[in-house]
Amino acid sequence: MHALWVWAHPHASSLNGRLREVGLDALGAAGWSVDEIDLYRMRFNPVLADQGGADVRRHQELLGAADLLVVQFPLWWYSMPAILKGWIDRVFESGFAFDVPDPETGKPLKYGKGGLAGKRALTVVTAGDRAATLGPRGISGHIEDVLWPLLHGTFWYTGMDPLRPHLITNADTVDAEAMARIEADLTVRLAGVMTEPRIDYRPMAEEHYDHTIRLHDSVAPGEDGLSAHRQG
């Protein structure tokens, strides 16, 4: 199996830097081959001005060859760093990741289908706040809702199988004991990354959505939030 590890943190000596080392070692020990994109160190240009470019084509080649995409970043203002958002803006181009036509109907494939179908996508995310704030009933919202634009609107939209975010909280106060636990948890998670169930988002199919891409009234009746778009 082959993985692409994309990470965005300005300091290689940070907690994120250590997580990247642990993750790459864990995948290597499990027999994976891995390509790495270190956005800050390579000074990736995140500004989408024109389509394409040699750097974009190279990153598309790396992504196209991967069975697993790991995207690692600190949670900043409930989102990813701008350099990572720019990487997605530039690399996930029309005709490559989306706007790929269905060979039978000619309509664009999306939401469970698309240019990146068959791949899995895992986010490794650090946050300074406590775990409860990013869980059920937490003031920040559940982490899967906070990352909805990435998990559902990017990964699932382009056909990838989004996996539950691997969230590390209290990132500013990690001691040696906590670090050992964090490293062990990430190693175990990566060992089973290809067999764990994906987030059970609904495919864009007539049994779920009408012609306006709105859920049928009979689907998840009484639910208006993001959870209605999950089958579980």
Automatic annotation (TrEMBL):
Pfam families noted in UniProt: Flavodoxin_2
Sorted UniProt keywords: Oxidoreductase
GO cellular component annotations of the record: cytosol
Domain Flavodoxin-like fold: 1-182
Domain of life: Bacteria
Residues annotated as transmembrane: none
Oxidoreductase is among the record's keywords: yes
Gene Ontology molecular functions: NAD(P)H dehydrogenase (quinone) activity
Family: Belongs to the NAD(P)H dehydrogenase (quinone) family.
Stated name of the protein: NAD(P)H dehydrogenase
